[in-house]
Write a structure and sequence with these properties.
This is Membrane protein. InterPro entries: DUF420 (IPR007352). Keywords: Membrane, Transmembrane, Transmembrane helix. This protein is mainly α and about 190 residues long. The protein has one domain. It is built from 5 helices and no strands. Helix 2 packs antiparallel against helix 3 and helix 2 runs antiparallel to helix 5.
Length: about 190
């Protein structure tokens, strides 16, 4: 399964990371005009945070399944679980960016200023920081796996970086659910 030239994994990781983060920051900063995406009914826009919370919960499960599978030597199951996790993440991100673009930026916190300052914003900051750190790590481990036969992957940093990426990914998805609950359920 050799899709990516071996010597280009770092370069491709860098390019994909920069492009992905540029799109995320442009959408979050309201720099992408709403007219550049198709219109959707308001109920669809309103449903996206809940759908993304569900996607996050499912992704937590698929990451855990993938982690457990590789610890048991089930490489095929690990691959399916982790590719499913990445697919869920891509779906989450597409929906999130669509909503940001349509709304012109992130939602304001509707709760008390004290909760916003001491609970919501710190959790959101950690969630965002981990998500930013995860993007290049995820690209790197996926490209490493895609560019080598299965027998060669243990000789790479795939497992070491993958453990870090999966750990941060789990925390980021979990905090994302907490942020959703604070933003859309509690307040």
């Amino acid at each position: 399964m050799e899709y990516v030239p071996r010597e280009r994994v770092r370069l491709l990781t860098g390019v994909l990371s920069v492009v992905s983060l540029a799109v995320v920051f442009a959408a979050a900063g309201g720099r992408i005009p709403a007219s550049s995406v198709p219109a959707a009914p308001e109920w669809v826009i309103d449903a996206i945070p809940a759908v993304n919370a569900i996607i996050s919960a499912v992704a937590i499960g698929t990451i855990a399944v993938g982690w457990r599978a590789i610890r048991r030597g089930a490489i095929g199951r690990h691959r399916v679980a982790m590719l499913s996790s990445f697919g869920l993440f891509a779906t989450f991100l597409a929906l999130y960016l669509y909503r940001l673009t349509v709304m012109g930026g992130p939602s304001d916190f509707p709760g008390p200023a004290t909760i916003e300052q001491f609970v919501y914003l710190p959790l959101l900051a950690i969630h965002i920081l981990l998500a930013i750190v995860c993007i290049p790590l995820l690209y790197y481990v996926l490209l490493l796996a895609a560019s080598r036969p299965v027998a060669e992957i243990p000789a790479t940093s795939h497992a070491r970086i993958g453990r870090v990426a999966a750990s941060l990914w789990l925390v980021s998805f979990s905090l994302g659910i907490v942020v959703f609950v604070l933003l859309h359920v509690v307040y």
